[in-house]
Amino acid sequence: MDESTDSFRQRVFQIIAAIPAGSITTYGDVALLAGSPRAARQVGGILSRLPQGTKLPWHRVLNRHGGISLPGEGFLRQKTALEAEGIEMDNQGKVDLDRYRWRW
DNA sequence: CTCTTGACGAAAC
DNA sequence: TGTTTCGCCAAGA
User: Fold this and answer.
1) Which of A14, A31, A47, A51 gives A39 a disulfide partner, CB atoms 3.0 to 4.6 angstroms apart?
2) Binning pLDDT at 50, 70 and 90, where does residue A2 land?
3) CB count, 10 Å around CB of A58?
């Protein structure tokens, strides 16, 4: 498919690809930027089906509370990826949104 | 067309 | 306060 194909998923890809290293955003913000403010759930659905080895920085997307929504081992993989960029989580597994939130 | 599925979020308990 | 319920909507079957 050519990359100009317009769909919610394509827009989500572009938006997430634009998140700078060391910053994070939320499912809700991605949905908002993609033009569908209440489709945060769909954003998660899209990320859950990313192919292995994707270059998309999916780990920079967190939930409304700055926490990781991924269950099980995914939690650790995302946490590790974030810490590798200098993003630290508190003892409750949440990042400081005021400090790391991506402003566009 | 209907029906299901969710890496969500806000409201209601 | 923490936990549960309910509304949301893109995509695929």
Assistant:
1) A31
2) very low
3) 17
